Amino acid sequence: MNLFSSPVMKNLEMALDGSALKQKTISNNLANVDTPGYKAKETVFKQEFERSLNAYRTNQQHFAFSTDRPSSFYVKEQGGTTMNHNGNNVDVDKEMAELAKNQLYYQTLVQRINGKFNSIKMVVKGGR
Questions:
Q1: What are its GO cellular component terms (predicted)?
Q2: Torsion sign (Cα): 40, 46, 51, 53
């Protein structure tokens, strides 16, 4: 039995990867706030993450959960809008709000993983 390959640990790892990619995307948007023609980008991973969560049917009358599609994160451009006269559509206030939200999400995931490791540590030490 591998302690670190449980579904919970895998999902937490995937969520951390997605959050890190979102942080990178937001940083890119903020770095290009004055670049003419730059279009803001967003990371799409939460929907993919939620789709990848395992769910088990306990009754045949329940809807089936599909887990056959591999999860992936991707960055998509937010075209069609313009915030500045130079064609750029980066909204600094929105990006800063998303940055703070993503930071809280990341910290929550890290606390959850630390809790898992502390549980394993307690078991290894015999409950002491």
A1: bacterial-type flagellum basal body, rod
A2: positive
